[in-house]
C-alpha cells in the first residue's frame, strides 16, 4: 500500500511538472482561448449628443455624495499616520478613466444599457484604489464607457482594434462634457490606468494639445500603459515631468518587483503602433519615479509616504508608510525591489500592474497637490 501511495504521489508530481512546462510554453495560446471573445463583433452606435448629461453614466461626479468611489479615504495602519496631513490645494477638477474591468468572451465591448454586474463592481473597486489619491480635488469625474473587454488586447484581429476604438469614442465624448461642465478657469488633471491610460494618451494628442484646455492642464497621470519617449510624447505635445513642482507635464510608470520578467509587456510595447504611427521597438518608455515625482532615478522605501495595502478582495485597505522603494531602469520600467505582499492579483513576471497607483498612494496625493500649486504660481 505504501508503495502504491508513493507511486501515486510521484505520478502527481510528474503530471504537475509536465503541466507547468506545457503551460509556460503555450500560456499565450491558453490566455487567448480563455479570454478573446468568440462572439461576432457588433459595431457600437455613437452615443446621443450630450449623452453624458445623464448622471447614471458617471461613477464619480459632483453630487453623488457618499457613494462616490473616488471620494473614499483609506485609514492609516497603526504607527504609519503622518504627524500632520498636508494642506489641501486650491480648486481643481480631475477627469479619471478607469482600467479594464470587463472580462467577457461573449462581447467585445461593455454595454451601458445592460451592464455586466461583475465588471461594474470591479470598476468601482478600481476607482476606490486608483482615483482616491486625487480626492483633494474640488471635482472628480469618472465616466462609465463601453470599454473594450480584456481579450481585445490579446489579439491582432481587427475586432480587437475596433473594440478599442469604440471605447475611445465614449471617453472622448465624456471628456468633452466634463470640459463643458467645469469652470472655464478651473485647472484640470487627467488621470487613468491601463486601458484608461491608453485612451487618455490619445485624447491628449487629439483633444488637448493646441486647445484652450492645454493651458489649464496641471498634469496627466498616464499610469500602467507605456509612453514612448520617441514615438508618443512628441505627438502628445507635453513634456515628461522632470521635477516634482512642474506643471503642464506627463507622468507614467509601470511597476515590477524583482526579479522582473517583463518580456511579455516589452514584446507587446515593441509591436503596437505608437501615436506617430511607428512601432516603438526598444525605444525607452517614460518612467516617472512616483516617490520623488521626477523623471527617472531611485528612491528608498523610507521616502514612500504611504502604500495602500488592500485586503484580499481589493474592497478595503490601509495605508502603510515606508513599504516600497522605486527605481526606474534604462528601459523605462519601475522596479520596486523584493515582491511586497499586496494580494493575489500580481501578474506573471512579478508584474504589479494592478497595484501601480496603490503602491504609491500617498505620494501620488502629495504629487498632485504640489503640481496644482505650481500651476497656480505660474
- What is the string of SSEs from the N terminus onward? HEEEHEHEHEHEEHEEEEEEEH
**What profile does the largest beta sheet have?**
6 strands, mixed
Spans where pLDDT lies below 50 across 5 or more residues: 1-27
The total of helices stands at 7
* Shape designation: globular
Total strands: 15
Give the neighbour order of strands across the main sheet.
1-4-3-5-6-7
State the CATH class of the domain at 36-251 and 261-279 and 359-376: Alpha Beta
CATH architecture of the domain at 36-251 and 261-279 and 359-376: 3-Layer(aba) Sandwich
What would the CATH topology of the domain at 36-251 and 261-279 and 359-376 be? Answer: Rossmann fold
Output mean pLDDT. Answer: 91
Radius of gyration, in Å, reads 21 Å
* SS strand fraction: 5-15%
Could you say which structural class the secondary elements and strand pairing correspond to?
Answer: alpha/beta
- Helix share of residues? 25-40%
**Roughly how many Å apart are the termini?**
81 Å
What would a concise description of this structure say?
With 378 residues, the chain is α/β, with parallel strands linked by helices.
Task: Give a verbal description of the structure.
This protein has 378 residues and is an alpha/beta fold. It contains seven helices and 15 strands. It has a domain of 253 residues: Rossmann fold. Strand 14 and strand 15 form a beta hairpin. Helix 3 crosses helix 4. The longest helix is centred in the N-terminal third of the chain and has 34 residues. The N terminus is likely disordered.
Amino acid at each position: 500500500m505504501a508503495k502504491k501511495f508513493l507511486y501515486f504521489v510521484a505520478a502527481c508530481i510528474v503530471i504537475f511538472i509536465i503541466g507547468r512546462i506545457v503551460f509556460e510554453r503555450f500560456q499565450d495560446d491558453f490566455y487567448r482561448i480563455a479570454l478573446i471573445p468568440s462572439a461576432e463583433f457588433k459595431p457600437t452606435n455613437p452615443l446621443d449628443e450630450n449623452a453624458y448629461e445623464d448622471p447614471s453614466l458617471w461613477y464619480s461626479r459632483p453630487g453623488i455624495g457618499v457613494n462616490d468611489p473616488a471620494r473614499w479615504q483609506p485609514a492609516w495602519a497603526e504607527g504609519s499616520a503622518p504627524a500632520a496631513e498636508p494642506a489641501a490645494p486650491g480648486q481643481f477638477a480631475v477627469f479619471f478613466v478607469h482600467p479594464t474591468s470587463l472580462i467577457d468572451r461573449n462581447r467585445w465591448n461593455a454595454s451601458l444599457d445592460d451592464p455586466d454586474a461583475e465588471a461594474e463592481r470591479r470598476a468601482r473597486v478600481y476607482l476606490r484604489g486608483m482615483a482616491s489619491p486625487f480626492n483633494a480635488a474640488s471635482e472628480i469625474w469618472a465616466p462609465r464607457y463601453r470599454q473594450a473587454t480584456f481579450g481585445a488586447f490579446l489579439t491582432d484581429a481587427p475586432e480587437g482594434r475596433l473594440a478599442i476604438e469604440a471605447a475611445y469614442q465614449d471617453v472622448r465624448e465624456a471628456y468633452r462634457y466634463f470640459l463643458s461642465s467645469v469652470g472655464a478657469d478651473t485647472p484640470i488633471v487627467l488621470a487613468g490606468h491601463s486601458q484608461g491610460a491608453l485612451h487618455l494618451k490619445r485624447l491628449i494628442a487629439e483633444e488637448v494639445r493646441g486647445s484652450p484646455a492645454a493651458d489649464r492642464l496641471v498634469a496627466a497621470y498616464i499610469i500602467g500603459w507605456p509612453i514612448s519617449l520617441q514615438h508618443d510624447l512628441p505627438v502628445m505635445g507635453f513634456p515628461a515631468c522632470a521635477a516634482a513642482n512642474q506643471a503642464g507635464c506627463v507622468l507614467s510608470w509601470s511597476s515590477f518587483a524583482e526579479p522582473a520578467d517583463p518580456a511579455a509587456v516589452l514584446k507587446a510595447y515593441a509591436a503596437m503602433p505608437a501615436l506617430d504611427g511607428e512601432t516603438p521597438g526598444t525605444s525607452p518608455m517614460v518612467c516617472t519615479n512616483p516617490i520623488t515625482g521626477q523623471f527617472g532615478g531611485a528612491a528608498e522605501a523610507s521616502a514612500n509616504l504611504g502604500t495602500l495595502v488592500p485586503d484580499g478582495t481589493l474592497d478595503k485597505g490601509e495605508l502603510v508608510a515606508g513599504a516600497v522603494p522605486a527605481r526606474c531602469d534604462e528601459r523605462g520600467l519601475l522596479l520596486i525591489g523584493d515582491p511586497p505582499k499586496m494580494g493575489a492579483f500580481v501578474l506573471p513576471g512579478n508584474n504589479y500592474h494592478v497595484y501601480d497607483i496603490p503602491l504609491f498612494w500617498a505620494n501620488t496625493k502629495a504629487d498632485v497637490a504640489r503640481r496644482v500649486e505650481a500651476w497656480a504660481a505660474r
